[in-house]
């Protein structure tokens, strides 16, 4: 059992999805998904390739808006507010609901400017000293400060893959988001860098609602407290990670966990 499962602080609902469907043209990729995602918790989305994990994750900060043929139906509430309401600015929303992608994608800018980017465009600081503080705090949160503090002016793209991914996490947390979405954040990393990111995810959940898509069931079991199993666009089962892995209710979940499908 992971260290994270032994911690028992209170968590409450952060995101509620109600009757969510997603279509890419005629392809019905997400089918009638309902879920309540807890704050200060790591929730893992697992399931076979193409089952819709990334599509559903992208609904949570309206990243599907950037895909022309994608159509999202249903409601997604963040702290009870409909994020698809016309009055919601998707750019502001993405500052509240940050995202980390599969492949580390730092900007071709200095380490400092990568982290300072969000606070600058969202006008979160009044002066250089405040910005310096946010950059340092974000790099510390991403467990990168010690490695980065003497090279803040160097390019972010010159770091190792694992460092680049932690830099992307620092960039995401710099806008002080409430939710962090992670789409297979370790798939391009070696086992040591993966272990560092997993440890970091466990720390991040003290301050954020974290949702992670992962291909690795071992990773889901290690880092998450809640797990949702997707299959052919349906969310088949959702609950405590321990229960999903040890005594799933649905035959399809059991087949996946035991390696019979996927
Ligand atoms: N940008 C897109 N344009 C068109 N169809 C898409 C797009 N992204 C995903 N799809 C389709 O939606 C369905 C779900 O894909 P999605 O990438 O969400 O699944 P996934 O579970 O994350 O898969 P994987 O584990 O392989 O990343 C698939 O049929 C896929 O082909």
Written account of the structure:
This protein has a domain of 174 residues: Rossmann fold, CATH 3.40.50. With 262 residues, the protein is an alpha/beta fold. Bound molecules: adenosine-5'-triphosphate. InterPro entries: AAA+_ATPase, ABC_transporter-like_ATP-bd, ABC_transporter-like_CS, P-loop_NTPase, PstB-like. GO terms for molecular function: ATP binding; ATP hydrolysis activity; phosphate transmembrane transporter activity.
The number of strands is 10
Percent helix, as a range, is: 25-40%
Mean pLDDT: 93
CATH top level of one domain? Alpha Beta
Measured distance between first and last alpha carbons: 24 Å
**How much of the residues is beta strand, in percent?**
25-35%
Category from helices, strands and their pairing: alpha/beta
Low-confidence stretches: 1-9
Which shape, going by the Cα principal axes? globular
What's the story with the biggest beta sheet? 6 strands, mixed
Rg (C-alpha, Å):
18 Å
Give a list of the ligands: adenosine-5'-triphosphate
Would you identify the CATH H-level superfamily of one domain?
Answer: P-loop containing nucleotide triphosphate hydrolases
CATH architecture of one domain: 3-Layer(aba) Sandwich
Topology-level CATH name of one domain: Rossmann fold
Strand order of the largest sheet: 6-7-8-3-9-10
* Series of secondary-structure elements, N-terminal to C-terminal: EEEHEEHEHHHHEHEHEEHH
Question: What is the count of helical runs?
Answer: 10
């Amino acid at each position: 059992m992971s260290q994270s499962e032994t911690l028992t602080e209170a968590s409450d609902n952060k995101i509620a999805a109600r009757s969510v469907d997603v279509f890419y043209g005629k392809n019905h990729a997400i089918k009638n998904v309902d879920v309540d995602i807890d704050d200060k918790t790591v929730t893992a989305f697992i399931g076979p390739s193409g089952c819709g994990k990334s599509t559903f994750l992208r609904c949570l900060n309206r990243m599907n808006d950037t895909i022309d043929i994608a159509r999202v139906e249903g409601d997604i509430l963040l702290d009870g507010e409909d994020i698809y309401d016309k009055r919601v600015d998707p750019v502001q929303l993405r500052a509240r609901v940050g995202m980390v992608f599969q492949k580390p994608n730092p900007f071709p800018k200095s380490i400092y400017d990568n982290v300072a980017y969000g606070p600058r465009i969202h006008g979160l600081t009044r002066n250089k000293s405040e910005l310096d503080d946010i950059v340092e705090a974000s790099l510390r949160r991403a467990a990168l400060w010690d490695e980065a503090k003497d090279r803040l002016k160097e390019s972010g793209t010159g770091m190792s893959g694992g460092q680049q991914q932690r830099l992307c996490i620092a960039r995401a947390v710099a806008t002080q988001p409430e939710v962090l979405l992670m789409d297979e954040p370790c798939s391009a990393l070696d086992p040591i860098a993966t272990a560092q990111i997993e440890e970091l995810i466990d720390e991040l959940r003290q301050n954020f609602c974290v949702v992670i898509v992962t291909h690795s069931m071992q990773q889901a079991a290690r880092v998450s407290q809640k797990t949702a199993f997707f299959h052919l666009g349906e969310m088949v089962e959702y609950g405590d990670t321990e229960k999903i892995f040890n005594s799933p209710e649905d035959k399809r979940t059991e087949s996946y966990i035991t390696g019979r499908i996927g």
